[in-house]
Amino acid sequence: MADEANRAAFMEIQASMIELTGKLKQVQNQMRNKEGDKKRAFLTLEELRPLPEDTNTYKSIGRTFVLEPKAVLQAEQEQKLKDSEAAIVSLQTSKEYLEKQTAEVENNLRELLQQEPGIARQIMSMSM
Asked: Which pTM does this prediction carry?
C-alpha cells in the first residue's frame, strides 16, 4: 500500500515537474521575443532621431508602406520600447516564480527518494 502511495506521489511530482519545465521554456521564449522587439524599437529610434522633422518617413503595414510624420513614427517606437520593457519585467517575475517552484518540486522529489530508497529502484525498473 505504501508502495502505491509513493508511486502515486512520484507520478504527481513528475507531472508537475514536466508542467513547470514547459512553462519555464515558454516564458524564456517570450522574454527572448520581447528582447528582440525592444532592440528593434531602440535601433529604429536611433535611426529616426537624427533625421530632420520634414523628412518623409514611411511605416510598413504588411506589404504596403504608408507615409507618416516622423513624430508619429517616433512616438510609436517609443511606446513599443516601453511596452517591451514592461513585458520583460513581468516575464522576469514569472520566470523567477517558476524557478522557485521548480526548485521546490526538485526538493520534494529528493525527499521522497531519501525517505523511500526502494522507490528509486522501482522507478528505474519502470523506465527500462
From this structure: 0.80
